[in-house]
């Protein structure tokens, strides 16, 4: 039989995980949204920490079902420690434990500030009048990862036509309050908050509360969660590695 199908037929979305149950619920909702993009595709999720199942468990489950290959999509917005070290170590351990199927890992979702991600951020901004935006993010001590968030903030600001600065819940002195103050120094008086988070959780709440404490506008944009543009971005990451394959 000839035609075209998605190859491989198994996709694993891997999130960092959180002790906040809202985060796992958001990841599972995104998993369903991705699966809806291509009926028949076996899409599952896993977590590096806190929640389960773990990536190795899901990959072995794929293999038991007869899948010979799987695509792993890191549900990460920066390529920091979790993407560069934690996830490869988990996959290496699965190999050591006897996994035989072919596994390919895509780029993280935030790599290159993709158009679909910027579209999702724009759509989720609340309908308020603003002349500046703070893009709140989890934060990391990795300079390159923080730079990628700064790039995303610059791209979002260019798309919106207003100044936009990144702010972090951890790993950086640039908190939400610091970013709001910096925008006020530039002449901004009505500052909206955009959320560079895939899921709600304690770090998201911390970053948002900091911005609000300095006078940012309420309501704020929610995390990206299962936004349709994010689901399409996941599919585009898979597609970059050869979405259609002759069957």
Topology:
Blueprint: E1 4-6, E2 10-15, H1 21-37, E3 42-47, H2 55-64, E4 69-74, H3 81-96, E5 102-105, H4 115-124, E6 132-137, H5 143-160, E7 164-168, H6 176-185, E8 191-196, H7 202-213, H8 228-239, E9 244-246
Parallel strand pairs: 2-3, 2-4, 4-5, 6-7, 6-8
Antiparallel strand pairs: 1-9
Helix pairs in contact: 1-8, 2-3, 4-8, 6-7
Task: Write a compact overview of the structure shown.
By secondary structure, the chain is an alpha/beta fold. Helix content is 43%, strand content 18%.
**Gyration radius from CA atoms, angstroms:** 19 Å
- Relative helix content: 40-55%
* E-strand count: 9
Class inferred from helices and paired strands: alpha/beta
Distance between the termini: 7 Å
Mean pLDDT: 90
The major β-sheet equals:
4 strands, parallel
Which geometry do the CA atoms define?
A: elongated
**How are helices and strands ordered from N to C?**
EEHEHEHEHEHEHEHHE
Strand order, largest beta sheet: 3-2-4-5
Number of helices: 8
How much of the sequence is in beta strands?
A: 15-25%
Runs with pLDDT <50, length 5+?
1-7, 243-247
What can you see in these coordinates?
The protein has eight helices and nine strands. The chain is an alpha/beta fold and 247 residues long. The radius of gyration is 19 Å and the shape is elongated.
